[in-house]
Amino acid sequence: QVQLVESGGGLVQAGGSLRLSCAASGGALRYYAMGWFRQAPGKEREFVATISWSGDTTEYADSVKDRFTISRDNNKKTVYLQMNSLRPEDTAVYYCAADSDRLVPTTLSEYDYWGQGTQVTVFS
């Protein structure tokens, strides 16, 4: 059983940056592919980015490509999401998730464990 706790959310002006962190406990992070998802008010949870267990392979949603970067430090059992050039439409609750079966899963149903989320609000 893996427990995930997100942090780093907050209020930021459009064009600014934030770095989200996802700390894992209860298991070795290196066995899991990790992903970030987000959910805006009134919308479904959507894929943002994913990274393989080794960190060698990543995938991004088109909406965040070239602005967001996912990374991981297996020794610190932490996954990061660096978000640059933020836009108001990036406002959402951001969730991290872990999957033990796939290289770079991109859909909600593929993930086994979820954090509670951290709020990101971007104002113009």
Task: Please provide a written account of the structure.
By secondary structure, the chain is mainly beta. The chain contains no helices and 11 strands. Strands 2, 4, 5, 6, 9, 10 and 11 form a 7-stranded mixed beta sheet that branches. It is globular and about 40 Å long. The N and C termini lie far apart (40 Å).
Describe the structure concisely for a colleague.
The chain is mostly beta strands and 124 residues long. It contains no helices and eleven strands. Strand 4 (33-39) and strand 5 (46-51) form a beta hairpin.
Q: What is the helix fraction of residues, given as a range?
A: under 10%
For the secondary structure, the number of strands is 11
Element string (H = helix, E = strand): EEEEEEEEEEE
In the predicted model, the low-confidence regions spanning at least 5 consecutive residues are: none
**Structural class, judged by helices and strands?**
mainly beta
- For the record, give the distance between the C-alpha atoms at the N and C termini, rounded to a whole number: 40 Å
Largest β-sheet summary: 7 strands, mixed
| Range of strand content | over 45%
